[in-house]
Structure formats: C-alpha cells, structure tokens
Amino acid sequence: MGRRDRLWRDDDPTTHGPQAAPPVICPLCERPIPHGAKSSLHHLTPKLKGGTHRGTVRLHQVCHSAIHARYSEAEIARRLADIDALRADPELARFVEWVRTKPDDFYAPTRMTRDRRSGRRRD
C-alpha cells in the first residue's frame, strides 16, 4: 500500500472515525490546524537568542511565516516572545484578522516585508 492510499483510507483512525485525534489549535489565529495542513513549531524566544530549550508552539505555516517576514530574531526576542505580545502587535493583528477569513488549511508563500528587506540591506 502506497502513501497516497494510506492518506485517503476511510478506515484510518488517525484521519477518520471516533478515534481521530482532534486538530491542534493555532494559538496566533485560533483556527484549527487540520491533519496534513502545513504547520511548524515556532520558538517563542528564537534559538539564536537563547530560546533553544524554551517554549515552542505549533502554528499554521502561513502564521509562522508572517511573524518572521515582519520581524527580526532580535525584535521577536525583545518584545514578541509570547503569544499575547504577538497578537497585540498592530501588524500581526491585521494579518490575523485577514487570515481568520481563510480556510483552516490555507497556505500562501509569504515574502519579507518591504521595511524589513530595506533594513536588512543596511546591516
């Protein structure tokens, strides 16, 4: 049996039936992360700034990419090292408001913001 067959079998308890695991909730946008949707672990304090053994959270990939597209590792460590701070940030609040209108498994490639790109060139 190939991988594709396993993903779509009706008797697979990991994706169907009463034993199916409940989806994880993305703490940033508060939407479920369905089984098979793109997601990743976000270090609340970036590893480069001492967060290797500190807390992580599972986020939709689009939510995780939005954070890192807007802010440097230093800024995340300094002022955005918890979920409440991330949600309170005006730029991310606008993103969260927008992404909540999308399906739970929505993914779109995310580019670094213009401000962050121009700041990186000066470094």
Question: What would you note in describing this structure?
Answer:
Residues 1-23 are annotated as: Disordered. Keywords: Endonuclease, Hydrolase, Nuclease. It comes from Methylobacterium komagatae. Residues 1-14 have a biased composition (Basic and acidic residues). GO terms for molecular function: endonuclease activity. By secondary structure, the protein is of the alpha+beta class. The chain is built from six helices and four strands, in the order H-E-E-E-E-H-H-H-H-H. The strands form two sheets. A two-stranded antiparallel sheet has the order 1-2. It has a two-stranded antiparallel sheet with strand order 3-4. Helix 2 (61-70) packs antiparallel against helix 5 (90-99). It is globular and about 45 Å long. 18% of the residues are buried.
Compact description:
This protein has helices at 3-7, 61-70, 73-79, 83-88, 90-99, 114-122, and strands spanning 24-25, 32-33, 39-43, 56-60.
Features:
single chain, 123 residues, alpha+beta, two-stranded antiparallel sheet, 4 strands, endonuclease, Restriction endonuclease, nuclease, hydrolase
Write the H/E string, N to C. Answer: HEEEEHHHHH
Q: Uncertain segments of ≥5 residues (pLDDT<50)?
A: none
Number of helices, counting only DSSP H or I runs of 4 residues or more: 6
Identify the strand order in the major beta sheet.
Answer: 1-2
Helix content: 25-40%
The largest β sheet comes out as: 2 strands, antiparallel
- Rounded Rg: 17 Å
The amount of beta strand, in percent, is: 5-15%
Overall mean pLDDT stands at 83
The strand count comes to 4
| Assembly type | single chain
| Spatial shape | globular
Category from helices, strands and their pairing? alpha+beta
